[in-house]
Amino acid sequence: MPDHPTRRDVLRSIAGLSALPFLGVGSGDALGEEGPATAPDRPAGEETPWYRRYLVGIEWGPTGANDRDRVYMSRAHGGEIIRNLVKARAEYAVVFMKDMKFAYYNSRVARKAPGLADRDLLRECLAEATKHGMPVVAYCQIQYDTSSWDAHPEWRMKDSGASEIGGRLCYRSGYLEFIQQVAAEMMEYEIAGFHFDMLDFGFGPPYGCWCDVCRREFREEHGIDMPPGVTWDDAWDKMFQFRADSNTRFCRKLQAFVKSKRPDVAVDFNYHGSTPFSWETGQRPVQHAANGDFVTAEGLPFVLGHYNPSLLALFMKAARPDGLVQGVTSRSVYDYHDFTVRPTADLKWEVFCYLSHNAQCTIVDKANYDGTSDPLVYERLGSIFAEARQKRAYFGHPPIQEVGLYFSSRTREWFAREDSVKYYRAFWGAHKALTQAHVTMGLIMDESVSLERLRQFPVVYLAGVAILSAQEVDLLEQYVSGGGNLLVTGLTGLYDQRGALQKQAALQPLMGGRVAGCQLDYPDNYVRLPASLADGGAAWLLEGIRPDWPMLTWGPIVLWEAATAEGFGELLAAHRTEDNPWSHRMSPDRVVGPAVLVNRHGKGTVITVGCSPDAAYADNYRMPEHRRLLSNLVRRLHPEPEVSVEAPPNVEIVVTQDQARPRLLVHLLSFFGPPTAAEVAFANGRRVLPPLMEEELPYRARVRVKRPLANVRTSEPSATLSVEGQTIELTTDGCHTVLEIEL
Fold first, then answer.
1. pLDDT (0 to 100) of residue 212
2. Is there a domain that residue 1 lies in?
């Protein structure tokens, strides 16, 4: 492992913790094995950039970064790299040309990898790629550039105590001019783009930057001195923005420089504004998604879980108005630099997850130490990418999404602070529950929220959004008054802009109740839905949940008193005891308030849940009943979706509409992983490794469509289907199956 980590290593370390962007034309590539494995013909209009035309590509990079022998990268050859990518049916190439130590081309300003001797890897790649019409994107690392850090002390990032931060470089230093020189060299070649990696401030303490340049410019911009550290006050709020602006300024100046030399060269910056990252990286969701010609980030289910690829795609699509997004993952099973290869089914599932969400997909392949590659990688990717290209016409259509899941960067920063999971639990759990319940969703970002955006969704869901501004409250009031439906859980709206608890909730006039108190000290709280609900017009709450059963719903609770709202169910606090190792995991005791409030406001409805079933569903004590409760609440607010699906919970659905035909496209993505474990002793036995999907297994699904059907087809030859009225019965064994429903 290098002295200073790259993005790949950092992601390992944190494991604990509506445009048509890629629309292909025609019917896509043939799957015949004898056909040429080249990039597809370009659509009419040569000016269409590669990142709008292509679906799948491969990033190739080295492993080792060593100058102590001549073996490192000595056998790498650009021609062989590209030929392997062509075999894999990749449509574009991203190739390392500058990392934290070396350049891999004949650079005049950066030290070249000694093992390459006189050879120029970039020139070799381009010579071969030209034969196949394959665009080549140059990879260039920004942070953790140890060669620049060692050579230029004046560029080093500093913490609040004026100590230098290893491997990190100030975004307001002369390092920008150096990177511009590197970019200018590479633009002498016929590259198609740049991928600039590691645009962060680090992923934890020490935090930067308090160098002399930053101190001076902070005072010029804000009229006060920098805070002495992480102070969580008005000065720190300004420091948040200063750090974010430093990063954005660097990116925009670099992009402007590239475009001034070569307007045709695409620019993208690796993105850390999404979950599971937080303010430490110095990136904000919407502000930094706007950098570059498209936004790219890593899904990595082996680090971040198998719900992250779809969540990441949804997050980036919401954060970037033009919808130009790319999901990135690895061919390896545990991290970027292990020499394993994921099973074909496992890779295929993730690739099609991105594509179904209208995101481009890049797979990272790390070379052997000497620069050679593993042919098995390209064999497995070849079948996946060929299928993706064949299915091109299914992708790029506008989604139909019934729930808008709200994301609050302000809550992440000022409520959760250094414990981002304090907010993320509810957000992650909401996404997981809706995905398993086959409820289609999009995201709404607090940085860019508008009434128009809210009205795109029949239901808006605020999962533990602790902080809401007056502007957000006003927009939500207009949304509900006009006929929108709101689902609110947990501590939503109970904290002010600095993260201090308030006596009443910001959305209280919409909720139809008042806050009598909060239980924040003990998370062992319960929900009970009495059997009498079935006779009182609330049978919808009981679907899939045993009546009269106290359901542990781990997390804080809000004690609501109904006013204009109608209360349903019961919240129960637990018994309390002392001198007991189980004192925070006790059985239920007394009723402290209603579980759910339902209130009509204007033309809309607001459902308030006094506990956090979403956060509980992402935590240690998760149960299917948490998901079922949330699904029941959504169905109460939106009983007749355009498409409803009954399928196993390991099947995700994405619904899009091909407006030109017209037809609905229902993507079904199934993940089947065997039970898993890890070699750890008590008391770490709960630490298990993510499963690997080895094969695509059959399952059944029932799909109901709100409108009359003209015809139904499926993308999979082995699938069977029957249609009766507006209901489709499907049996399929593909991890990605598309139902084409002509209306």
1. 98
2. no
Is residue 189 within 8 A of residue 213, CB to CB? The reply is no
Domain stop point among 394, 428, 459: 394
Domain of 214, CATH number, reads 3.20.20.80
Q: Quote the pLDDT of residue 66.
A: 84
Instruction: Report d(CA 737, CA 508) in Å as an integer.
Output: 44
39 SS3 class: coil
C-alpha closest to that of 204 among 15, 10, 422: 10
Q: Is the peptide bond before 735 cis (omega within 30 degrees of 0)?
A: no
* Cα distances (angstroms) measured from residue 479 to each of 141, 431, 456, 559, 604: 44, 22, 10, 26, 8
Q: Which of 275, 328, 339, 349 is nearest to 690 (CA)?
A: 349
Q: Which residue has the tokens 């140890």?
A: 146
Tell how many helices (H) and how many strands (E) occur in the chain.
Answer: 20, 31
pTM value is: 0.94
pLDDT in the model for residue 686: 80
Query: What is the distance between the alpha carbons of residues 388 and 392, in angstroms, rounded to a whole number?
Result: 6
- Of the CA atoms within 13 Å of residue 153, those in its CB half-sphere come to 3
Residue reference for tokens 């086959």: 438
Q: Is 669 left (phi over 0), alpha (psi -120 to 50) or beta?
A: beta
CATH label of the domain that carries residue 686: 2.60.40
249, burial (CB in 10 Å: exposed 0-12, middle 13-18, buried 19+): middle
Rounded Cα gap, residues 278 and 416, in angstroms: 9
**Whole-angstrom Cα distance, residue 158 to residue 154?**
10
CB 714 within 8 A of CB 667: no
Are 103 and 110 spatial neighbours (Cβ–Cβ below 8 Å)?
yes
Choosing from 588, 623, 641, the residue where a domain stops is 641
- How confident is the model over 42-60, as pLDDT tens digits? 444 458 999 999 999 999 9
Whole-number Cα distances in Å, 16 to 10, 12, 299, 424, 689: 12, 9, 15, 13, 12
Q: Do 542 and 552 contact (CB within 8 A), yes or no?
A: no
